[in-house]
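Protocol step 4 of 6: record predicted structures for both targets in the notebook before any analysis. Target 1:
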Amino acid sequence: MTEKLEGEELADAIALAAGWTFKDGKLHRVFVFADFVEAFGFMAQVALVAERMNHHPEWCNVYKTVAISLSTHDAGGVTYKDTDLAQAINRLAGFVA
């Protein structure tokens, strides 16, 4: 099992996930695209990466907006699995830190 990050280690991990915030015990980010098709295409790309990582996001799509929250349920909070997935999602969206 992956260990839940806390304190300074959590702060450092969040810094690795550029553009993501810590909200309600999870990493959170909202992406806005040109239209629904672009947003849905992005979600399909994320789904393939998440499946390969065996780490799946909580997300919501409304028209051209995709809101994503990441946490590792088995660990009860944010782990490096979440920051790794956040970084991969950023790359898919064209945000490279």
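Target 2:
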Amino acid sequence: MNGTAPERASINSRIKQIREALEMSQRRFSFMLSLSGSYIARVETKKMPVNPRLVKLIVSEFGVNEDWLKTGRGEMFSQNPDEKFTKLVGLFRELPGKYQDFVLKIVEHLLEMENA
């Protein structure tokens, strides 16, 4: 033991934790934020600093607790998201608009059948 304190997790590593908790590739995660995959890769590897705009994007897009993202205190998500719902939303957002409309019609039809 050399007497040095263990390194605290950085905001960069917490961004990677979020992406992994959402089961997203860097490509999909960056797509959801309208950023390049290489930008997210550089952020996660601490080659790029995290700016306030990125923090706001992640908080608003994924429901992340801003205090946790900045400091590591509290819970990762503002509300504990249901994993299936989070995954569904991520996949849905990747679809072109015409397919999103189709998926919504199917869901509405399934609900009508369930309530019949």
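Step 5 preliminary note on target 2. The two ends are 67 Å apart (CA to CA). The chain has two domains: 8-80, 82-116.
Proceed to step 6 after PI sign-off.
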